[in-house]
Amino acid sequence: MSNKETFGSRWGFVLAAIGMAIGTGNIWRFPRVAAANGGGSFLIAWTVALIVWSLPLLMAEMVLGRKTGLGCIGAFRDFLGRKFTWMGTWVAVVCLGIAFYYSVVMGWCMKYFTLAVSGAFKAGMTPEQTTEIWNNFLATPSQTILFHAIAVLISGIVVYRGVNNGIEAACKVIIPTLFVLLIIAAIRALTLPGASLGVAYLFTPHMSDLANPNTWLQAFTQSAWSTGAGWGFLIVYGVYTKKKDDIGLNCVLTGLGNNSASLIAGLAVIPTVFALSASLDAANAAVSAGNSGLTFIYLASLFPTMPAGNLIAAVFFFAMTIAALSSLIAMYELGIRVICDFNVSRKKAALWVIIGGFVFGAPSAYNATFLDNQDWVWGVALLISGLFCAYAMMKYGVEKVRTEIINHPWADLYIGKWWSVCIRLFPIMFAIVFGWWVWQAITWYPDNWMAPFETFSVGTMVFQWGILLVLALIFNKTLADKTIEGYDITQAPEEEEAV
To answer: What's this model's pTM, rounded to 2 decimal places?
Structure first.
């Protein structure tokens, strides 16, 4: 491990970490969920969730990567013990399960960027007409698979080039560009007549909403999914840090960067919806239309009605594309790191991940219902991944982790006992949020909620999770044996810091 790559600078790491956190969820999910769940009240709950759920998990992940110098599978083996290797397998497979369909989503964004540039969206288009464009695209596998392949290829080129020349170099361009694009879209939205109604809708808190448990559950879920807390990304990126690199401040900057992007996206989307919709009912319909409905149907019909609308539409969909790219390269890197830990060369590992990304993503590109199912199954499974990360900290010793690893002698930001309290309370928070999602699924399918082949049922989660869990346990010893020995970055000798 002494010859591993490292990030060249703090900002290289932070930008890569912010890139892994910022994705399409910041742009298409956050605005509608915030607007639909109390606006300003939601923002308060969402900020609390960042502090008590997301930041503690991000730090826990980075601890795992820095303490072991290994990807997800090896990190859990060395940090918890060989019999817990299966937990790392779970984290890795769940993230790759998302990567397989996430490239399809990136392909959708690229397709709509090309439509915006070509002027396909005309002023006066109704949501029914943009729905037809959307449905025709999804019903054309040659198109969906083509753009899926392009997304895999672009992401693959980045990770194939390595950490410094690939991920770090790309994120130094991608993330500033993303913020500039979002700011341009937000400024244009805020200058629209009637935009103030959307701003008030997004930011005005209502105490009654803070008393509503649903506001808090939606806020915690959004924070968990948006920041990537517990996904395994920072385990991998933590492997590429140096002895003196900070954990606390870097994770705080990651969380704040992610939330800043979400707020700017909210200012770009919600004022646009309220300013350009024909009525308040139409605006509410757009907000409640789901991720793809809001983005590819309603916004596609609203953008052309404003001056320079096609230009703003192109800016918006390009921002969506590079947001998806920055997350997808992190997902691919997670897979590459795991394969490299089996003593496989990086270039060969990258090729395996790229080929696998295309092959296993093709079903989601071919059938959007299959994608919805995979998003449901592995999206909720990410909550379990977060629980495993918290458990690792508790088994090792929460205070020991905080005082010896997080608050190391070169730490720039002292992390207090609030971190330890949040990690200890995490199982309770997990039980509430996870239980809520399970209960929701039961209410969706009251008569057949355990059906294994329903798109959003409890049964389909249990069925697919069960297969993963059984295989992870069967191959626990094999994977533990095949993974190379780790390297404790926090104990690295001084002379290796420049490697």
So the answer is: 0.93
